Amino acid sequence: MYEIRPATAADTQTAIAALVEAFARDPLMLYLFAKHPDGVRAGIEKFFSILLRARIATDAPANVLLQNGVIRGAVMGNHTSPPAWPAEISREWLNFQASVPEFRDRLEAYEAICDAHQPDEIFYYLGVIGVHPALQGQGAGKALLDHFCERSHADPKSRGVYLDTANPVSLEFYYKNGFELCGEGSLDGAPLWCVHKRT
Questions:
Q1: How do strand 161-165 and strand 190-197 relate by DSSP bridges?
Q2: From edge to edge, which strands make up the β-sheet containing 161-165?
Q3: How confident is the model at residue 37 (pLDDT cuts 50, 70, 90)?
């Protein structure tokens, strides 16, 4: 029903379009980009574009999900030894941080919660997973999640997958797929949950 394959540079625009639709109302994105001068969706688009291109450039986990040959979702994260980003993408990231009012401080608050609750064991970090809303509830998200977890399982250094979510619906999805709560925090009153699954 779905095809999952490694993301390439040519996939970026279509994959990001699907992710923007998936995260348009996500509480974390609304928090991070509340002050973006061009709106939340513009912030999400640039944010995910930089992250995906960095993962592709460094051969970090980054996959797209296709339905009938069309990209409808993506997953990306870090393996056990994330490499440094290419200098050009790093500069783009710093410029992006500086261009969005309050983004750097909000990102630091978010990362502080995630860092505080991460497992003591070596793990794969799942940074972004999303499918177009039209496919949600139809097994597409589970297919991407399973694929990412399988990559972690195949890595002898990894002891599991760690991720976070500010979406209560997503939290229930992770619970149903074997993840357990390992910590939580609050971002301006919005909850953030950190979960882990041994693989």
A1: antiparallel
A2: 3-6, 62-67, 70-78, 124-131, 161-165, 190-197, 180-187
A3: very high
Burial grade of 13 (CB within 10 A; 0-12, 13-18, 19 or more):
exposed
CA distance 58 to 54: 6
Task: Kindly report, residue by residue over 139-169, the tens digit of the pLDDT.
Answer: 999 999 999 999 999 999 999 999 999 999 9
Contacts of residue 142, defined as CB under 8 A and 6 or more positions apart, other chains included, come to 173, 177
Choices 3.40.630.30, 2.60.120.200, 3.30.450.20, 3.50.50.60: CATH for 3-197: 3.40.630.30
pTM over 0.90: yes
Q: What angle do CA 100, 104, 110 make, to 5 degrees?
A: 125
